[in-house]
Fold this sequence. Notes:
By secondary structure, the chain is of the alpha+beta class.
Amino acid sequence: xxxxxxxxxxxxxxxxxxxxxxxxxxxxxxxxxxxxxxxxxxxxxxxxxxxxxxxxxxxxxxxxxxxxxxxxxxxxxxxxxxxxxxxxxxxxxxxxxxxxxxxxxxxxxxxxxxxxxxxxxxxxxxxxxxxxxxxxxxxxxxxxxxxxxxxxxxxxxxxxxxxxxxxxxxxxxxxxxxxxxxxxxxxxxxxxxxxxxxxxxxxxxxxxxxxxxxxxxxxxxxxxxxxxxxxxxxxxxxxxxxxxxxxxxxxxxxx
Length: 255
């Protein structure tokens, strides 16, 4: 996660908004629905554990859309814009940019539709999709897909010390910035290997890998700014994000 997408441990960010409503505005429900529909029609489901027949749905959506694509859209935003917009406004921006990039709509068409709907805010939205498309999306919401791919092949075991790596972030990463370079203890190992939605490039995610719950001492991470007698911090981390203390030491001395 880029800095603006993972703020754990940072101070001076102002008051925290504890808004409990999932959807504050009505339009936010539609944005969530669009995201869910794209997930349910994604080309990535051709390799899903449930046997989805995407061709039978009749959808013209022919590319991959996953949580990773949504996250990449948010992380690619200018940090100042990221803090300026509401949660689902970021979703809207990422989905829109994706649809333009993939050729589903041109930027000119988008601008024209924006002008038309601003001039007629009560204008009806496009007609509902075919029943077969609805059926595919509803089936996906019920059955989903598991990222688990076979038994675990871990390099570390519970109780073992590890050092969090510092791989290049690229366009997207699942490694919180405040854990980079930190020492932790493996608390538990997941039963299987798990794939990520897409290859993230230099940080090693994509193919199925072991996943660990790692325990950290908050005092080691935040020093004097940590709370008094803090509880341990636990993080689920993919194996490419971890290395042994000995390897990390050798890398440092070689430099």
